[in-house]
Amino acid sequence: MNSTAVVFTTSDNEGNFRKTYEKPFNETAFRDLINLFEEKRFLQMEERYVPQEGQPLVTDVGTLEISLEDEVHTKTVTVDPYYSEYMPEGLQEIDSALVELRAYALSTSRDEAEEIAEAWIENAPTYGYDGFDLKLEDHEVLETYPEQHFLNYTFTSRHGGYGNRTDQIVTEALTPHSMEIAVSEREVRSAIIDGEWDEIAQKPLEKEPHNDDSTEVVSGAEEDLLEMKYPVSEEKTPWDQWYEEGNI
Prior knowledge:
Residues 205-226 are annotated as: Disordered. By secondary structure, the protein is of the alpha+beta class. 27% of the residues lie in helices and 33% in strands. It has a six-stranded antiparallel beta sheet with strand order 6-7-8-9-10-11. It has a three-stranded mixed beta sheet with strand order 3-5-4, with no helix packed on it. A two-stranded antiparallel sheet has the order 1-2. The protein is elongated, with a radius of gyration of 24 Å. It starts with a strand and ends with a helix.
């Protein structure tokens, strides 16, 4: 981070770069953070903190590295494993401030979520083929970490069916649709049209017998929402590949 931006990057278990999240930062907030480093005497701290005798050994929590660089100094403090009880009080306060900044970098405002969802819908195959009159009907925010946005849109298609129907025989008829969109970490994680079409996977939702009365229930939408709390694959959507191959 610097006086104008907070940048948060993620990587996989092998250290390969995955994503970058960036949010604006201001001079006052940046100076307050630097003052915290100075007040807690970060430059005088040990370079490495590990469990001491009598402390519990925590596993599978990763390693923390905090670095401060300016024109004169370069200092990195490592906590291995990453556990607050292994840190001096001052370092705990610095780490807490940085965790708040990370949450800020990953956050998505209501306006941002709506912009992301609407841009995605307009470029997705179903709406992109013949959709119009896109309207936001509802927007709920689940205060998880990071937060999850659930948006309900309606729109109308000029033909029946879903996806890109360029090479299909379609019926010309104004067809109303509803689409449930889930946005988290500034990305669309789930997109279900009319409760029966997965717009990300470009296929109908699977139906399976209900255990109690043998009626059919739609599966897939709820699973998608649960999966939002965990890292998701960064594989391209089907239509991204179609565009690259010149099939659209």
